[in-house]
TrEMBL record:
Organism: Zavarzinia aquatilis
Record flagged with keyword DNA-binding: no
CDD domains: ALDH_CALDH_CalB
Record family assignment: Belongs to the aldehyde dehydrogenase family.
GO process annotations (BP): aldehyde metabolic process
One Pfam family linked to the record: Aldedh
UniProt key word NAD: yes
Annotated active site: 218, 252
This protein's name: Aldehyde dehydrogenase
Aldehyde dehydrogenase domain segment(s): 9-445
């Protein structure tokens, strides 16, 4: 992009932010009715434009399962928006607290922050834009959205959808390359939500710090699966591979590696292959099997396989129809197990974001726990097993953004529970009431008592009464 064009985009971003901040100050807190009306508009967009959403996602990915798009980018979003619509009146109610004096009043009111900036990613372009908007709008805020440049068709559709339903002073979408996103993070928003990689999040955090803009960071990391000796291996393999092949594993919550008891690798590998074959009898031209987003990511994933093989890992490609993938238009990559990759292999160091699955073994569950704890805290952890004491041990001794037991990713669909990371996998949470709280300011308001002692409690000269009070109050 030339300098003049980039400067124009910078100015447009700054103008939009000023427009929305001015509108927020002029209008004051949005009423519950207005918030519900905005959520209704967003729901209407999802319903009315679902075919356009499928087409745009398919164009950007080269092939993207239409049903998967409806499930993840439409159905799930509508659920988030409806949940916020149904509950926001309750969330908005002030909370009362005990006060120091009987006739004093202490309460917390939830005030909109103002204008929230949303930097959304490419893997679920609509879900990871509209689902956060549920909390942003429920809390009474305005929003400016910068979607990913990796999905230009989806980004243009997002801009068209929002512009057709909202005034720019309410919600707006800006498009552009990574330079636009970098400038976006430097602006004095009232809050920024970033969903993406840990490496980019560091740049966003540094830029936002200049204006002390609070952040919600939804990142990822290497989410482990611990399979217990007590787990039915076939069920665990089927559930793991369901999510590892959804969107071709391009999910921040996708299982990143599996830890199996010693002696269970072959059983798991056979069950994984059977599960994939049941879902995808063919892969190469199967409309249900999604492509890798672009050539750079495809080459990155292929390099992980090559690197692991050179370093001694056993590569098990799951290719039910034995198809030749050397000549193809749409960057499809077969699900691949990478068995016993060493720790210095790239696939064991980087978040995979694709249909590759490292498999390792452990002798005792404490060994698996120690392996997880020696690495950055993941966005999710998955435990499969029927031993409740072992499950409790894993839950108590590991830290992750969330956990699903005996399945993969299910906790993210519980709209009434917070969703977010911890440490290297993010900070802050949204979904449901957690989203409302994340994008609200909890303002403490105290109305003082009319009792004389309330007025004179802190005022000199200090006499015997205050000394006697302190003597009795300062105790164990």
């Amino acid at each position: 992009m030339n300098t003049a064009a980039f400067t124009t985009q910078q100015r447009e971003l700054e103008r939009l932010l000023q427009v929305q901040k001015a509108a927020h100050l002029a209008a004051g807190p949005l009423s519950a009715e207005t918030r519900i009306a905005w959520l209704d508009r967003l729901i209407g967009l999802m319903v009315d434009r679902q075919d356009d959403i499928i087409a745009a996602a398919n164009e950007d990915f080269g092939n993207r399962s239409g049903v998967a798009t409806l499930l993840a980018d439409v159905f799930a979003v509508i659920g988030s928006l409806k949940f916020a619509r149904e509950n926001l009146r309750d969330w908005m109610r002030p909370e009362s607290f005990e006060a120091a004096f009987p006739d004093a009043v202490a309460r917390v009111e939830y005030q909109p922050l103002g204008v929230v900036g949303i930097l959304s990613p490419w893997n679920f372009p609509f879900n990871l834009t509209f689902a956060p908007l549920a909390g942003v709008v429920a809390a009474g805020n305005r929003a400016i959205i910068k979607p990913s440049e990796f999905t230009p068709a989806c980004s243009e559709l997002l801009r068209d959808m929002i512009a057709g339903a909202f005034d720019e002073s309410e919600i707006a979408v800006v498009t552009g390359d990574a330079g636009v996103a970098a400038h976006f993070a430097t602006l004095p928003f009232d809050h920024i939500l970033f969903t993406g990689s840990t490496s980019v999040a560091k740049h966003v955090a540094r830029a936002a710090a200049e204006n002390l803009v609070p952040l919600t960071l939804e990142l990822g990391g290497k989410s482990p699966v611990i399979v217990s000796e007590s787990a039915p291996i076939a069920d665990a393999a089927a559930r793991v591979m369901t999510i590892k092949t959804l969107n071709a594993g391009q999910i921040c919550l996708a299982p990143d590696y599996v830890m199996l008891p010693e002696g269970k690798v072959e059983e798991f590998s056979t069950a994984a292959a059977s599960a994939v074959a049941a879902m995808f009898p063919t892969l190469k031209d199967n409309p249900d099997y999604t492509s890798i987003i672009n050539q750079r990511h495809y080459d990155r994933l292929r390099s992980y396989i090559d690197d692991a093989r050179v370093k001694g890992a056993r590569i098990v490609e799951i290719n039910p129809a034995g198809e030749d993938f050397s000549q193809q238009e749409a960057r499809r990559l077969p699900p691949t197990l990478v068995i016993d990759a060493p720790d210095d292999a790239k696939i064991m160091q980087d978040e995979i974001f694709g249909p590759l699955l490292p498999v390792r073994t452990y002798r005792a569950v404490e060994e698996a726990i120690a392996y997880v704890n020696a690495r950055p805290r993941p966005l999710a952890l998955y435990f499969f097993g029927q031993d409740e004491a072992e499950e409790r041990l894993v839950l108590d001794r590991t830290t992750s953004g969330g956990v699903t037991v005996n399945d993969v990713m299910s906790h993210a669909f519980a709209e009434n529970m917070p969703f977010g990371g911890v440490g290297g996998s993010g900070s802050g949470a949204y979904h449901g009431k957690a989203g409302f709280l994340a994008f609200s300011h909890a303002k403490s308001i105290y109305r003082q008592s009319k009792a004389p002692e309330a007025e004179y409690f802190l005022r000199p000269p200090y006499g015997d009464a205050i000394r006697q009070f302190l003597a009795s109050a300062i105790s164990r």
